[in-house]
Design a protein that fits this description.
Layout lengths: L7 E7 L3 E8 L9 E4 L6 H19 L6 E8 L3 E2 L2 E2 L14 H9 L3 E5 H12 L7 E6 L3 E6 L47 H12 L16 H13 L3 H25 L3 E4 L9 H15 L17 E4 L6 H14 L1
Parallel strand pairs: 1-4, 4-7, 8-10, 10-11
Antiparallel strand pairs: 1-2, 2-3, 5-6, 8-9
């Protein structure tokens, strides 16, 4: 089929620092590699629109087509939104809030646009890269916070009536600090799963541990760096089997699995995909075992093994396959499904 006769669909994944984009055709095959441009979300949505147009131009150039041949766009943003209307600024500039970004960008580009949040986009990406998976899929990704998304068996994202579904980081878990206090969460509440399973949680945890006599001679105490940098360094220490780092990630993994058990009891997804930076680490398999320990502690037995066929797992856990391009891929595939 000549390029002029093919249909093309773009996925645009807006992050805090970069916008990742990709092009697929009517057969849902990738036409281009991932293209990245700088994100200007803190400068306002108009500045971001210019960056999105730059990304579309680069995709078209790579594919040897014109931008006008792109028949649909999937767009995700790192903020809660309902049918394109931004509900809260998150890491965006204040002028995003209350605007129908989907409609505004669709009018500007002259192309229909589908829009959701970044967690949903990554969930869709993980669903579509698994070409032989036809059931539902729950995606969870520890990062700065704890993102999530649920894809239904037909490949449709579950948004909820207001686009606010699957805020997985903000279910409560019954764990307390050593002084009996519930940890503070960035949402303003206490005791959320995200307060235990996120980069922010690692910052708190490493600070508390390094203040103990047990770890006074730990190399991280000798590093002249803010706690934010030490939290980033913790993964490297875990990959070297450092005792403190392993202790912290083991606790995190167990609590993560414990919290997931309640989500699985509600949604029964069958497949749970874990994304984020942990999917790229050398200690990801031990981490997954810690997750399973917490899960099996909390879950009813029928949620991990079939009572009828004892060797059949009712819930499977897998690491993400899409890497940091999952969001862009998910939005490209969604655009193809909706506008193809």
């Amino acid at each position: 089929m000549a390029s002029s006769e093919r249909s093309y669909f773009a996925g645009l994944d807006i992050g805090g620092t970069t916008i990742k984009s990709v092009l697929v055709d009517e057969k849902a095959e990738k036409v281009t590699d991932i293209v990245e441009v700088r994100s200007l979300v803190d400068k306002g949505y108009q500045s971001t629109f210019e960056q999105l147009e730059e990304a579309l131009g680069l995709l078209a150039k790579d594919a040897g087509i014109t931008v006008q041949q792109i028949k649909g766009i999937g767009l995700d943003v790192p903020a809660a939104n309902s049918d394109g209307v931004i509900w809260g600024k998150a890491n965006l500039a204040s002028d995003w809030v209350g605007k129908n970004i989907r409609q505004l960008f669709s009018d500007r580009a002259g192309v229909p646009v589908y829009m959701t949040n970044d967690g949903n986009a990554a969930a869709l990406g993980e669903y579509f890269v698994r070409r032989k998976h036809f059931g539902s899929l729950m995606y969870v990704a520890p990062g700065t916070g704890l993102a999530g998304g649920l894809v239904m068996p037909a490949g449709e994202i579950y948004n909820g009536s207001n686009g606010l579904a699957l805020e997985v980081g903000h279910i409560s878990v019954p764990f307390r600090e050593e002084d009996g206090e519930l940890p503070y969460c960035s949402c303003g509440w206490h005791g959320c799963l995200e307060a235990w399973v996120s980069l922010v949680a690692l910052r708190r945890r490493i600070k508390l541990e390094l203040e103990k006599d047990k770890w006074k001679d730990h190399p991280l105490n000798a590093v002249d760096a803010p706690i934010e940098e030490k939290a980033f360094m913790l993964r490297d220490f875990a990959e070297s089997n450092d005792e403190l780092a392993i202790q912290i990630f083991k606790q995190q993994g167990y609590i993560f699995g414990y919290g997931l058990a309640d989500l699985i009891r509600v949604f029964d997804p069958g497949l749970v995909v874990i994304g984020g930076g942990l999917a790229e680490t050398s200690f990801r398999e031990p981490y997954l075992q810690w997750v399973l320990e917490g899960f099996e502690e909390r879950a009813w037995p029928i949620y991990y093994r079939s009572p009828i066929e004892p060797d059949t797992f009712t819930t499977r856990f897998e690491w993400a396959l899409g890497g940091d391009s999952a969001g862009a891929l998910g939005m490209a595939f969604a655009a193809k499904e909706k506008f193809g």
